[in-house]
Amino acid sequence: MRIKLIYAICLGFLAYFIAYPLIHILINSFTVEEKATFKLFITALENYVIRRSLFNSFLLSIAVVISTSAIGIPLAFLFVRYRFPGRNFLMTLCFLPLIASPFVGAIGMTQILSRFGSLNILLMKLGIIKYPVSWLGSGLLGIFILETLHLYPIMFLNISAALNNFDISVEEASYNLGASFFQTFRRITFPLLLPGYFAAASIIFIWTLTDLGTPLIFEYRELLSVQIFNSIKDINLNPQGYVLVFLVILITFLLFGITKRYVTKHPYTTERTPAFIEKNLSGKQLFPLYLFLFLLLGISLLPHISIILSSVSKKWFFTILPSEYTGEFYHTVFTHHLTKTGIFNSLFLSSISTLLGIILGFTIGFLLAKTKIRGKNILDIMAMLPLAIPGIVMAFNYFTLFTGTILDPRNNPYILLVISYSIRRLPYIVRSTYSSFQQLGESSEEASVSLGADRWTTFKRITFPLISPGLFAGAVLAFSFSVMEVSSGLILAIRERHYPIAKVIYTLAGRVTDGPYVACGLGVIGMVLVGFSYYISSRLVAKKIGEFFRIG
Questions:
Q1: Residue 205 and residue 436: Cα distance in Å, rounded?
Q2: What is the pTM (predicted TM-score) of this model?
Q3: For position 237, which CATH number holds?
Q4: Which of 215, 261, 282, 464 is 20 to 30 A from 327, alpha carbon to alpha carbon?
Q5: Are residues 358 and 463 both part of a single domain?
Q6: Three-state secondary-structure class, residue 484
Q7: What total of structural domains would you count in the chain?
């Protein structure tokens, strides 16, 4: 009975804060004056701005998938198929772009890519261009660049994982029959990599489609995510926001469904043979290799470099690098009332949400791995569902559903922020705990019981110590992600005293004088925190940092 009660509580909590908001969106998307209708869809699609935003969002997402593929696939072949000095170190560097959100990077990159920014000044001094080039254009190009630099490691990692489980003999057979490299890649290699490719491409597409912070920083409004954000202001008078959110949910679920079906049922599968022999690169071969890698890493880390430089620059006008440096912006970060409020709120809310995530994640992991309770598959699906729900969708759902209730975010968003943070990161904790339970087996616990220990003693001295590394590795990552969460903070936090770090950064970025520089200082602190969290988590579970970004 106790296990059934715990199961019911977990399932009820997830149903209320995951399934119920989705049903709320579905009902409001197809209902006008309590009558079922498609009127809202027709009205939304008749709006030129919405049609333009939909087109731009799809175009941007597809372009980012193509650009990350162009970078990630060759990079994966290079690191998996060849051996060269410094390979492991350079591979680790390739994951660094993921520790800085493009939301923060956009602030620093405006200094690099603006009309009289560092890049144009450098090119004019070298005589390559005579007049400044508008690299950011209307803002869409800047978003594309930042999303590409931030997300290509996801493509790289998943293609690398697919190559590591690849039967090299099929390629060798193709070459022996006279096929060229491109024929072999098109007809043999790439079809076998498609499951991993689709998994990465789906995540990149959805991530780009729903990113809210970056277009807001670049002040580019004609994107689906920004239209959803703007629709909240008058959602009671103009319910078209429900339609836009429903479209995002539909696209997300379709992509995840197609990917899951393709990965599990795709006919192009092989049993991996003994590992192929990696080719050694040496001598003259190393120069173009290192030139390519350092050029790629240099460009990839430009957002990070720009954030750091902006946070310490006292004077940076019409020069390639700052002409004067200062630490006063970091002093402001820790003394200004708004930044102190943001840091405190984020650390406090992330700590509470992580604790809630640990309790939920451990309980659900235990129920899935150690019990035979009927219906646990439903609990598993519900716990994994947040992977398919973008942050902007969850934040919009909570704002519209709980406005006017005891959880009204306009009065105090803390409870909804804690729940949003914990639920969005719950799948990582559940999976790490579940896998730890599976690795544990039953022999250790049975031996403890056979020696006279009761269930509590066995759990305290045997079970928990063995599963705690995986549990806390997931918790550390959940904490760091929550601290830098963007969508929930931008939508749910209305008043300054409730702002988390993301809302503070967005507010400061729009202020004149020192606002953007202080925002970059906050961004640097966030980067350090996220990077340190990855390191701690990798040490806890003895994984490479990149493994935390593997999909599927």
A1: 31
A2: 0.86
A3: 1.10.3720.10
A4: 215
A5: yes
A6: coil
A7: 2
